[in-house]
Every structure is written in structure tokens, then in C-alpha cells.
Amino acid sequence: MEYTVIDIETMPDETMINKLPEPDVKYGNAKDEEKRRVIYENAVAKQVDSMALNPLFGRIACIGIGDTVHMAENEKTLIEIVSKELFSKMQPICTWNGIGFDIPFIYKRAIILGIKIDPPMSFWMKRYTITPHCDLMQVWMNWYGYEKLDTVAKALLGRGKVDFDVTQIKELIKTAEGIEKISNYCKGDLEATKLLFDKMNGILF
């Protein structure tokens, strides 16, 4: 059975910053006004960085399909690409933590942007099976728990992911050089996931 690897990279949606809830700040014993200001600003910065993981406050920066990375200024275009090229064909997909992150993020962003996707998200979210969605992390963790792609890639492939700070995507995406760095990072994830699929295939599934 032919599987297509997919991966997404996300970033904060800067238009949603003013809609974030007030951060839960731990001041401890800090009494000095300047120290409290720094603590508060750090809490806000951390909250902004974490926006990328929440489909309410984050957006898709790129989508990797197979060995191709799609990037577009319009997020709606990216979702329409993966819907047309992959989802609508119901072709089996392979991810790393796609059940926990990639697939729900894509579908929830589609709801927010008013995009209709077929089949529904539930089609890809079946546990304890590799069809139609082989989530390699779920397989490796016996369907329970979390492990980083980088950790398993180092152990099984002898090399980890590209050294990359995902919190910088929001700035990198503004330049051609930065876009290339994001694309290369996503390609690295696609390649690692495909190699792990080949390594586990026939042994774990």
C-alpha cells in the first residue's frame, strides 16, 4: 500500500495577538516594579510563541506533501492544496504525531477560514490501525504517549532533525532566505518520517 508523508509547520497569527487571554503570570516574591514588568513581558512573549500550536491563534506556514513543500502567503491556498492533492483522494497518509497535531490543526483552520474538506477529519483519526493514516509516533509508542521525531530519528537513523528554532518562523517567513530555511526544515521532517516508515514497515506493522 502506497503512503504519502505529510507534515505542517505553523506560526502565530499576528492578527490574533490582541485577542489572546491575559497571561497567567507568576511573580513569586518579586516586588520591584521593573522586575515585575520583565516577568510580565516574558510571560506575554511565551504566550505569543505558543500561539503557533493553537489553531485559534496560529496559522499554517507551510505544508509538506511527499517530497514537496508548499508555501503560500495565503493560508487558504495551502489548505486547498492538501485537500485537493491528497485528502479528497483518500490516499493513505503517513505522519509523525499527525493524529495529535497536524490533521486536527489543518481541519480546524479550515473551519475558521470557511473551507470545506472531504472526507471529514474523523476519517484520518482512527487509532490502533495504520489505515488510512499511519501515525508513526502512535505506532512507536504503542498508541499511548508522546515522543519527539528528533529523538527517534537519532536512535533509528543515526541522525536527527535539522537544527531549527520553530519560534523564528514568524520572522523567517518575511524573507526569501527565511522561506528557504523553513522549506528545508519541513523537507527534513518529511524525509525523516519516510525513512522511519521504511525502517518500521514489515516489523511493527
Structural commentary:
The protein has 205 residues and is of the alpha/beta class. 43% of the residues lie in helices and 13% in strands. It has seven helices and five strands. A five-stranded mixed beta sheet has the order 3-2-1-4-5, with helices on both faces. A hairpin with a 2-residue loop joins β2 (58-65) and β3. The longest helix is centred in the last third of the chain and has 25 residues, at 176-200. The radius of gyration is 19 Å and the shape is globular. The termini are close together.
How is the secondary structure organized here?
Layout: E1 4-12, H1 33-50, E2 58-65, E3 68-71, H2 75-85, E4 93-95, H3 98-113, E5 133-135, H4 136-140, H5 149-157, H6 169-172, H7 176-200
Helix pairs in contact: 5-7
Descriptive terms for the model:
alpha/beta; 5 strands; 7 helices; Nucleotidyltransferase, domain 5; 205 residues
Give the DSSP E fraction (strand runs of 2 or more residues): 5-15%
Q: Report the top-level CATH class of the domain at 4-9 and 64-200.
A: Alpha Beta
Give Rg in angstroms. 19 Å
**What is the number of helices?**
7
Helical percentage = 40-55%
Q: Strand pairing plus helix content: what structural class?
A: alpha/beta
CATH architecture of the domain at 4-9 and 64-200: 2-Layer Sandwich
Report how far the terminal alpha carbons are from each other: 12 Å
Determine the CATH superfamily of the domain at 4-9 and 64-200.
Answer: Ribonuclease H-like superfamily/Ribonuclease H
Which stretches are poorly predicted, pLDDT < 50 over at least 5 residues?
A: none
Q: Predict the CATH topology of the domain at 4-9 and 64-200.
A: Nucleotidyltransferase, domain 5
Strand order of the largest sheet: 3-2-1-4-5
How would you sum up the major sheet?
Answer: 5 strands, mixed
